[in-house]
Amino acid sequence: MVRRPYPPGGYNTCRSAPTPPGIMQMNDRYLSIDIKPLTGAMGAEIHGVDLSHVDDRTFDAVHRALLDHGVIFFRDQDITPNAQMAFAKRWGEIHLHPHMRCLPDHPGIIEIVKKEDDTTVFGENWHTDQMFTPTPARVTILYAKQVPPVGGDTIFANLHMAYDTLSDGMKDLISDLRTISVYDKQKKRPAAMTPTAPDEAPEPAEHPLVRPHPETGRKALYLCHAGITRQIAGMTEEESRPILSYLIKHATKPEFTCRFRWEVGSMAIWDNRRALHYPVNDYYGYRRVMHRITIEGERTS
Q: Which pTM value belongs to this model?
């Protein structure tokens, strides 16, 4: 897929005059897509798009919205696994999780299941997807098949804002640091989400702590919770902990976040290069089934 250059200052997908509210103007023609920001920090709901039938102009608008808002949400989507895969491939190569099984007939789709008696949820902590690999996921596409009547929200945090609001001294301190991330196979997970080859030691991955966005150039903090981002390269875990603990706490301040309540047919798409996410575990006794696809990202070294 060929992407257009990202212009200086970014795209403004929520334009006022002369473009009518809720209408995006492209190539002197109007594209009827309603984009509503979710919070002042990040996130937007998009209406007027059927993700099972997306033409080039509509995809371009969706891509622009993701760059602007970090995470975008769609409601009332009726999409098959084949259609979800076809849509995902427009974003790039499918990223196969090295430790999780996919649906047998749809390599690339992980079915995330929490059963009624599971006490944990998959990915329960602040993280960005597949940071424990040399080429972390660029984009995640998550589709709700079955959800509890209440609970099970996902919270997102804006890593651009987290970096921008650091002091100049802290920016200087961390500017050239790199981190070591490792997949935790021993972490408790829902019964259906057992890792493959649980006894094999996972390989560590090294990434910059401050990461310029490959498409926009804007800097972001880039780290996960302590179970994945273990230490700063060249330091011990003990030496690293005060810096990493401060940064993850800073990055997840409420004013940097948005929260999404799922419904059957909802789809979320987020940019892992600039967003953390946290699945809320508050629906014990209910079943939840999601279909997830991740898109392969760029090497950071």
A: 0.88
